[in-house]
Amino acid sequence: MDRRMVCETIQLVKGDANKNIVSYSINKIKKGEVGEIYEELCNIYGIADKIACFFLRDVSITFNLDKMIDEEDYKYFQPIDTWVNQTSSKLGIIGPEYNNVQEIKSKIINSCLNNKVSPLLFNAGAWYVGKHAFDIFFEEPFR
Fold first, then answer.
1. Residue 134 burial (CB < 10 Å; 0-12/13-18/19+)?
2. Which uninterrupted H or E stretch holds 7?
3. What pTM did the predictor assign?
4. CA pair distance 62, 26, nearest whole angstrom
5. 68, 26 in Cβ contact below 8 A?
């Protein structure tokens, strides 16, 4: 599986002079072609929504591209895993009735934008808190 994923990634960037998936993705994001790069990533064997979103989120945070992302494209930068889901639920962003990934993404993005918080940074932080300190962070109720 890993070899096939690497081969398909190389095929994706073979037209890029740098032959680099990161620079290829940065260029796509800067051009506003986020949906296109997302689809290209998801067409690589072994990559689906969560991994594509993790990659795009981390590239965007690392290279400070948050300001270049259109509001409707934030869904491509929101990997939803158990940690993000649990943290968002504990913070009251989503309720137990939310089990559709696209609905969860939408609720998180809207809540972040309404509160002037970067959806990318919230997602990364929610994942980190959930993965490394969920029980400690949410040990006592908010006051």
1. middle
2. helix 2-13
3. 0.83
4. 10
5. no
The structural domains of the chain, with segments of one domain joined by +, span 1-71, 78-143
Largest CA distance in the chain: 54
**Residue 35 has which token pair?**
């949906």
Report the alpha-carbon distance of residue 86 to residue 50 in Å, rounded.
16
Residue 32's nearest CA partner among 77, 63, 73, 75 is: 73
Query: What whole-number distance in Å separates Cα of residue 88 and Cα of residue 108?
Result: 7
In whole angstroms, what is the distance from residue 105 CA to residue 73 CA?
Answer: 11
Q: What pLDDT tens digit does each residue of the chain (143 aa) get? A: 667 777 777 777 777 667 788 999 999 999 999 999 999 999 988 899 999 999 999 999 999 999 999 999 999 999 999 899 989 998 999 988 888 999 999 999 999 999 999 999 999 999 988 877 766 666 655 54
